[in-house]
Each structure stands twice: as C-alpha cells, then as structure tokens.
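pipeline stage [seq->struct] | target=Post-GPI attachment to proteins factor 2 | organism=Toxocara canis | residues=270
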Amino acid sequence: MSSSDNPLEYHDRWALFGSLPLFIGSEADRRIYYNRAGRIRLPVRLVTYIFCSLPTLALFACVFLALETDFELATRTHCGVQNLLPSVSVAVGDFHWGNLLWKSAIFTHLPPRICVAFVYAQLFRVPFERCGQQTLRYATCVTNLIELFSLGLLSAVTSEHNHPLHVFAFTTFQISAIVHMMLHTWMYDICRLNTASKICRQSYRYKRRFLRFSFFLLIACSFIYYWHNARCEPYVYSLFALCEYLLVVMNILFHGTVMYDFDRCYVYIF
C-alpha cells in the first residue's frame, strides 16, 4: 500500500454520539473507544447506498404513481397547456400514496443524515484550528442542518395544505443545499482532504462535479420557470420538472460521497 492510500493522519474518521449506542469509524478506532463488539456492524458504503436509494427511488415512484393515478391532474398548469411530467411538489404532495411513500422515505433517511452532518463537523476539525476556519466549519454543519430541516418541513407540509409555507421550505432547502455544498467543498480543500489519499481525491472530484451540475440545474430551473410563466408554451413545464428531478439527484449524489470519505469505516450499533 502506498503512503497516499494510508488513513488520514490529521483528521478523525470516527464519531461518538454521546449517550446514543452508536459509533462510526474503523475497527481499530472501535477497539480504542469500546471494549466490546457492536451488536450490528455495517460498512459505511452499504449504509450510504441504502439511505441514498430511499429518496431517489421514492421520487421516481411518486412521479410514476402521479402519472398513473391522474395524468391530467398531475401535469396540469395554470394556463392549461400540454405537459408530460409533474413537478416535484405535485408528485410527492398531491397524491395520497405518493405523499405517504415520500414522507416515509424522507423521515427514515433524515436521522442518519443528521448524524453525518456532525460526523463531518468532526472530520473537518484540524489541530490548532484558527477562528475563521472553525467558524466556517460550524457554518458548514449549520447549513446542512437547515437543509435537512427544510427538507422535512416541505415533505410534511404539502403545497395543497399550506402553499406559502411549502414554498418557503422549498426555497430554503434549495438555497441552503447549494450553500452547504459550496462550504463543504471549500472546507474539503482548506483541510487538504482533497490530497490526503487517492480515495479522497476521487471524492473531491465527485463533489466538485455534482456542485457544478447543481449550479447549472438551479439556473436552468429558474430560467425555464420564468419562461413558462411568461410564454406558457407546451411541454416547457415538463422540462422544468425534469431539471427539478435531476437537481434532487445531484443533491443525493453529493451527499453520497460520504462513502468515499469514510472508506473502510463501519457503523456500529451497541
């Protein structure tokens, strides 16, 4: 094994969660902090696949259910032009079974993602941390938590039940998600994790790629939505919906890079 593939020297790739019987780290770290084996031991990569699959599969299942349940209602717009796809809000909120499926997937995967937010706050900590870097590290964690809170809020409150609150939650989610991705990638660079190992370099490349795609898709969504309201042409709203789907997928893929950052680590439940 080359030196570039050795575990990270100055970053803690383990995390304790107070009184919770939960530990994330390598087998060697587990032996240091716990004198017993966990009742459950799952690779971080497997856990990442599971919890990234939940919202992804739920989203496309909701789109399918919306189109199958009532195509006209799912694709209807304020000006009545033809469309093929429902928006994310309509797909996950306006149909009973789709809404139930979406809420189940989101609220199942939120607790692990909250844990990951604090795990990264520890990973980005370095010896002799300066005040500015500490503030940036906290901001990265806070924006992640805001993103997750707003995701839960927009899932719990549908557009049909409380449109202003849903729009606020959705807007907050999109802004905090992009800001968090920017701060996260910046912290990765500042802490020199992007050069710490081969797998970390790969993770950094993926993060930057997903961030760029997210920027492009967010701008595209804004432009297409304006175009739809200004011109109200057929199928334009479907293009907006497609960009929405891809934006959600980019967000999931970005957060899925945790499996590279904690390669050869495990989730232990005691």
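stage status: PASS
auto-comment: The longest strand covers residues 22-25. The CA atoms of residues 178 and 215 lie 8 Å apart.
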